[in-house]
Amino acid sequence: YILKTVKVTPKSFIHDNFLLENKYAEELYHNYSKNQPIIDYHNHLPPQQIAEDKTFKNITEVWINGDHYKWRAMRTLGINEKFITGDASDKEKFMQWAKTVPYTMRNPLYHWTHLELSRYFGITDLLNEKSAEKIWEETQIKLNTEDYTCRGLLKKVNAELVCTTEDPLDNLQYHKQMASKDLGFKVSTAFRPDKAILISAVGYTTYLQELGDKAGIEINSFLSLCDALRNRIQFFHDNGCRLCDHGLDQIYFENYTENEVNTILQKKISGKEISNEEALKFQSAVLVYLCETYHEFGWVQQFHLGALRNNNARMHRILGPDTGWDSIGDYPQAQKLSAFLNALDSKDKLTKTIIYNLNPADNEVMATMIGNFNDGSVKGKVQWGSGWWFLDQKDGMIKQLNALSNMGLISCFVGMLTDSRSFLSFPRHEYFRRILCNLLGDEIKRGELPNDIEWIGKMVSDISYKNAKDYFDF
Q1: What does the pLDDT average to over 463-472?
Q2: Mean pLDDT score of the chain
Q3: Residue 135 phi/psi, 5° resolution?
Q4: SS3 for 447?
Q5: For residue 134, what is the enclosing H or E element?
Q6: What is the pLDDT of residues 138-186, one digit of tens each?
Q7: What is the DSSP annotation of 66-133?
Q8: Taking burial as the number of CB atoms within 10 A of a residue's CB, which of 168, 249, 336, 447 is the most buried?
Q9: What is the pTM of this model?
Q10: Are 85 and 106 in contact (CB under 8 A)?
Q11: Is-contact 236 191, C-beta < 8 A?
Q12: Are the CB atoms for 366 and 404 separated by under 8 Å?
């Protein structure tokens, strides 16, 4: 045998049909999903930067700083913290990230990295130590133009709505500024009152004082706490807020009386220790009050459940929360969640609800739980949210889509969100859409779904955009 060398022009890693494995998947994506606007109904973008239309000095500032996904990968590779959250220069940090990228193959970071370089900067080279200098320079040039400000980046991905997440203490000054301007997209907020719930947290009484000051109410009882929270919900509502979010390990639901929770709060305010049982009763009472109030205001409520946070006490002391020391928890979810939703539904005070789980072992629990409380009053009233955090990758998304399809109606699903702090994270919507279209396209090819592209395409369009558009009242 004579081996012949054939020169083949390589196709870019990120190309038009990336992740699309047949003609049906391609048609679904390109004709029904690709050009749909983005409704990113939950993220952690800083509204000040959008209001001021911040310009980023370099790609590290917009892409690596604050991204604990990348930080965890770099630490695993053995890169010193100096080049992650430390005092190294931005260019040094980028070079260390570029060194890390080839080692992230089969982690979603590898796909996200190259999608983001392609979609925002038109860069199709693979990022590694050899290409790093060129890519640093190329992105530096573009980031210094007016098309690459915060607003420019959001316009590039066809964002129609971005919904940030704020504590009840927030004065929403930047949302107020943006409400009066034509940005080319809408910015809203989600109410995140977890600090008012978690009575055992360090600094809880200080937080109550700040909440009372903000609401103009002295918080000295459970009733006055409820009044203060209602005051802030009204303030957020008046400024365009239509949804809340809770990041809890699990739903709390213990039997309680108002006298009990009032006594528990008095103990806490006076500096006395409260038991775990007392904390759970109090947290249950506050959560129920909040959710009944959300129903009154017609909001959507979101629950992100299952994270085991701040596992590394030493690094948490050094760097603080949200710096890459969290993992999946294995909390029991079903019984308390069922009792909680049932208590609200029994009083007809269950508002539209999205439940996200972090433990894939709970997928079928969540997929079946939502069906218990979809009462026909609203299409998809209770939703099982998209795979998030450790599950917003290909395998996690497919498992979520399959479980929801098998046990519910995927056609009613409100789709993807970024849940991110980065202005370059929006190609995660594209990633999700490609995975969805390929999943359906593969089943058309195998004859498990009919070759009815028009109807299945409509379903794709709905999941990509229209279901969320109809579900949220912005």
Answers
A1: 97
A2: 96
A3: -70, -35
A4: coil
A5: helix 132-143
A6: 999 999 998 999 999 999 999 999 999 999 999 999 999 999 899 999 9
A7: T-HHHHHHHHHTT--GGGTTSSS-HHHHHHHHHHHGGGGTTSHHHHHHHHHHHHHH---SPPSTTTHH
A8: 168
A9: 0.95
A10: no
A11: yes
A12: no
